[in-house]
């Protein structure tokens, strides 16, 4: 696999052979072609990096941003500006420099481990309620719909100060905005307009009457010069937190449980030793094959990575999921080891754009497992593991459903 221009570019993203198995291309590319030419669903070209050190190098470099229509970066999907990553919402939030640092600093106060630990009992109580409802409806049940999906939606809505009655709308808007191929441009535009209007009204209400929630804090916070966050950024931030904060975690809760139940000795080992919950969550994050698209970075200057010099104007796709299975970074990388420590996986990214909500995600995943182990020790898959079906056509990967009995 050379780099000559007449070489056939691979179509990305690759398809997984089974819900819990990695695409064969990852290992081949890491071994033979660490910087590979790929074609995105939009038809645009990009360079894919799959090795741990290379992915980390690109993600951690503060010079590079995500592709935007303004910098002529590659688009993910062809039917519009490139989905949620290139939407007005993404463009409104400062992506670099002082503005980005300030935005993150204000939000980071809300996503500290300390604050997450304070939230833990509330998350646990909600998880218990969801288990009660699921058990009440009888078995088999779809753990994703009954438990994994509503839990993070409830948590992020609580943090944003959004009323319970509006949560169904939130879930629908978020699902639509994360689409690569499942909705038309009209549907995506309509969802975004409704969402912006709703969040605008929500921000105005919080301005008039602040509460104990993220948006109220951001409204009343200022930077060193006394500059407050403009309404447009507040609206975009609320939307971004909702989209990022529920879909990815909902999918991950289902995937952690699926991984543990697919080989039930893993579930048994957690039942025997609850201290394994934390490392098990990290290992599930590391070995996740349905992690979604990866992170895009636009190079506005030449950049050397993986033994190749990528010219300015290249869009790079960083596959954190492929990097997480690199034998150069992890011993027996292909194996699931629930005791693995340390586990410096890249599932939350690296550098200035690493996932803001990782403390929240970890808390939700750990609590979800703790509650399920305590309440439903007999939990098992309701069908064969190879019958699990991955979601297709969304930017975040997951399972369509997770049928379980107990």
Automatic annotation (TrEMBL):
Organism: Saccharothrix yanglingensis
Cross-referenced Gene3D superfamilies: Cytochrome P450
UniProt cross-references to InterPro entries, sorted A to Z: Cyt_P450, Cyt_P450_B, Cyt_P450_CS, Cyt_P450_sf
Keywords, sorted A to Z: Heme, Iron, Metal-binding, Monooxygenase, Oxidoreductase
Listed name of the protein: Cytochrome P450
Pfam families (alphabetical): p450 (PF00067)
UniProt cross-references to PANTHER family, sorted A to Z: CYTOCHROME P450 BJ-1, P450, PUTATIVE (EUROFUNG)-RELATED
Cofactors required: heme
Family per record: Belongs to the cytochrome P450 family.
């Amino acid at each position: 696999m050379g780099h000559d221009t007449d070489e056939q570019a691979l179509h990305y993203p690759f398809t997984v052979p089974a819900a819990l198995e990695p695409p064969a291309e990852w290992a081949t590319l890491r071994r033979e072609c660490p910087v590979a030419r790929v074609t995105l669903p939009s038809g645009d070209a990009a360079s894919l990096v799959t090795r741990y050190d290379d992915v980390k190098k690109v993600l951690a470099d503060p010079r590079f941003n995500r592709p935007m229509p303004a910098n002529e970066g590659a688009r993910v999907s062809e039917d519009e500006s490139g989905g949620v990553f290139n939407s007005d919402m993404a463009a409104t939030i400062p992506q670099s420099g002082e503005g980005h640092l300030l935005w993150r600093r204000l939000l980071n106060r809300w996503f500290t481990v300390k604050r997450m630990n304070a939230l833990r009992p509330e998350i646990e109580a909600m998880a218990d309620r969801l288990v009660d409802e699921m058990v009440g409806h009888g078995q088999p049940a779809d753990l994703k719909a009954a438990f994994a999906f509503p839990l993070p939606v409830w948590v992020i809505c609580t943090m944003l100060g959004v009323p319970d009655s509006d949560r169904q709308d939130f879930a629908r808007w978020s699902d639509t905005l994360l689409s690569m191929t499942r909705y038309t441009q009209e549907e995506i535009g309509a969802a975004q307009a409704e969402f912006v209007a709703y969040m605008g009204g929500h921000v105005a209400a919080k301005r008039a009457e602040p509460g104990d929630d993220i948006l109220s804090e951001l409204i009343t916070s200022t930077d060193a010069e006394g500059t407050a966050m403009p309404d447009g950024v507040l609206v975009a931030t609320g939307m971004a937190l909702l989209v990022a904060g529920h879909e990815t975690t909902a999918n991950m809760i289902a995937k952690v449980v699926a991984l543990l139940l697919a080989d039930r000795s893993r579930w048994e080992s957690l039942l025997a030793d609850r201290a394994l919950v934390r490392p098990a969550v990290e290992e599930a994050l590391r070995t996740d094959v349905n992690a979604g698209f990866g992170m895009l970075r636009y190079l506005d200057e030449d950049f050397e990575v993986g033994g190749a010099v990528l010219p300015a104007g290249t869009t790079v796709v960083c596959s954190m999921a492929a990097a997480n299975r690199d034998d150069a970074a992890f011993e027996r990388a292909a194996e699931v080891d629930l005791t693995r420590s340390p586990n410096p996986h890249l599932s939350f990214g690296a550098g200035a754009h690493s996932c803001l909500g990782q403390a929240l995600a970890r808390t939700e995943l750990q609590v979800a497992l703790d509650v399920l182990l305590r309440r439903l020790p007999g939990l098992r898959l309701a069908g064969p593991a190879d019958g699990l079906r991955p979601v297709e056509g969304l930017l975040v990967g997951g399972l369509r459903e997770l049928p379980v009995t107990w």
